[in-house]
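User: Hi! I'm working on a homework problem where we have to compare a predicted structure to a textbook description. Could you give me the structure for the chain below?
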Amino acid sequence: MGVPIHLLYSNSHLPLSPIIRTVTSIQSREWVRFSHVALVLGDGPLDPNCHIIESTLSGGGVRFSTVGAFKKKAKNWEMTRLREEVTLEQFLLLNKAAAGQRFKPYDLMGIIGLGFGRNWEDPTDWWCSELVAYLLKYIGMLLNGWGHKVNTYTPHMCYKWPQDIVDSSVF
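Assistant: Happy to help. Predicted structure tokens:
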């Protein structure tokens, strides 16, 4: 039996959230539910004190937080469990790799470039879904869409991976 990987999706009260959803909806030609994604790093995802890693503009980039803090700042949110599981070794590598990305700045230029169809990749900074895709690819997960570069991933593309809803706020 493998180790499950959980993701948290959300929309915030900040003005960038609807802009990200609108631009991503236009690009993907379908309505996008969420503007943000974070990766759960602990083994108790329903515990409010369980650690997550995320990259936010308001937070200055990559940082650790908790499931409880994530939910408090969200306008609405959803937690999912990826159907593909990993080994314990992969899970430990994921946590080590995540720690190595801590304090990297938010990739504002990259996300602006993505909005205009440009590839302004910079491996020294991350936006939320770019960070999540990088970490999961780094540990060898075989999720759909790996034909895309990690710096082109949106929360909506992550949401298309095979996964099941574990918990959610009321919409």
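For your comparison, note the following. The longest helix spans residues 88-101. The beta strands are 6-12, 36-40, 51-56, 61-66, 74-82, 163-168. Good luck with the assignment!
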